[in-house]
């Protein structure tokens, strides 16, 4: 959602091709229809027991065709896939995991914190309350009735329930290789990076991207029992400890120094927090989450953001507000919608 001040170097999907990236790893671009990110890079890691996929792409016929044909072009059959490790539950990463499992009998693995969310989303959809839940969250953030109506439309179905639960430090079932789970919460509660120790490279999912910064939000927006941005910034510092190893992200392009980029993103968010603190200090009246989001800087003006992106912006504003609240810089009112003001 937010930019780090550099134009993205990702190429259009039509220019992408499956690629041997060395060390027994291939990347397969899988399109995300109608999304400005364009595509997800699905990685296939070779092993004597069959390939393991890192992420699976969006659940769409065009994406399935791209995944299966892309694997075939590098000599792999989707029927031979051993497993799918999902870096996080978001639909552009988890969407096709269930279809891969149906075609191959592969297991699906995800961090336990995101599995809990998948279960919750599936229960909400089963009960038929998902639109009411979303609408209530938007209202409490300060969105008007028109924005609420647009914001609850066309939500993707929740992903397949994984078979395997991962925790920090777990090794993936990848015969002959060492692929270790590193828990990096922030972009989602259970986001993971994966350190391929036998070649010293890091699959970063959405945690560290070369040019843009991943969306960090709170859902529902007014939660006061979590601090995803604080978690994210702690996770960034953990990644910097790995040193200048190559990063294989799920979007954009591979890059050589994950440590330096993680430190740069950490600085970006500290600067954003300072800007937000200044905004609230200069505003005499308490602001709703929606009002804060409308006054923050995004990759395009607020009035040009479509409803889905306004909702994401509100989630990201809420995450920054929550971190300032945890730091005891601001406080929330007891109103509904909730409002924030500089700590007295």
Automatic annotation (TrEMBL):
Protein name stated in the entry: Metallo-beta-lactamase domain-containing protein
Gene3D superfamilies linked: Ribonuclease Z/Hydroxyacylglutathione hydrolase-like (3.60.15.10), Winged helix-like DNA-binding domain superfamily/Winged helix DNA-binding domain (1.10.10.10)
Transmembrane segments: none
CDD domains tied to this protein: TTHA1429-like_MBL-fold (cd07725)
PANTHER family for this protein: ENDORIBONUCLEASE LACTB2, METALLO-BETA-LACTAMASE SUPERFAMILY POTEIN
Top-level lineage group: Bacteria
Segments forming domain Metallo-beta-lactamase: 39-251
Native organism: Acrocarpospora macrocephala
């Amino acid at each position: 959602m937010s930019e780090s001040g550099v134009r993205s170097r990702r190429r259009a999907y039509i220019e992408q091709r499956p690629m041997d990236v060395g060390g027994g790893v291939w990347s397969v671009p899988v399109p995300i229809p109608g999304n400005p990110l364009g595509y997800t890079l699905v990685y296939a890691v070779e092993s004597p027991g069959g390939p393991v996929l890192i992420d699976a792409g969006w659940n769409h016929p065009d994406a399935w065709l791209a995944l299966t044909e892309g694997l075939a072009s590098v000599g792999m059959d989707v029927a031979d896939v051993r497993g799918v490790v999902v870096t996080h539950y978001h639909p552009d990463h988890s969407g096709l995991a269930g279809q891969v499992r149906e075609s191959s009998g592969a297991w699906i693995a995800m961090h336990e914190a995101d599995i809990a969310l998948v279960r919750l989303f599936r229960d909400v959809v089963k009960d038929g309350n998902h639109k009411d839940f979303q609408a209530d969250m938007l209202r409490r953030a300060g969105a008007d009735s028109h924005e609420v109506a647009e914001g609850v439309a066309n939500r993707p179905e929740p992903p397949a329930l994984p078979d395997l639960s991962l925790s920090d430090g777990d090794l993936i079932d990848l015969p002959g290789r060492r692929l270790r789970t590193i828990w990096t919460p922030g972009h989602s509660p259970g986001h993971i990076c994966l350190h391929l120790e036998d070649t010293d490279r890091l699959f970063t999912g959405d945690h560290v991207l070369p040019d843009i910064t991943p969306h960090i939000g709170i859902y529902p927006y007014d939660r006061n029992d979590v601090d995803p941005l604080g978690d994210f910034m702690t996770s960034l510092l953990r990644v910097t400890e790995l040193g200048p190893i190559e990063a294989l992200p799920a979007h954009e392009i591979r890059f050589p120094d994950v440590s330096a980029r993680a430190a740069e993103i950490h600085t970006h968010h500290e600067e954003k927090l300072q800007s937000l603190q200044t905004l609230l200090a200069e505003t005499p009246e308490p602001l709703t989450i929606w009002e804060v989001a409308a006054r923050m800087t995004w990759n395009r003006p607020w009035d040009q953001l479509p409803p889905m992106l306004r909702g994401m912006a509100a989630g990201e504003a809420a995450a920054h507000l929550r971190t300032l609240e945890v730091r005891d810089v601001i406080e929330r009112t007891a109103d509904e919608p909730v409002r924030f003001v500089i700590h007295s």
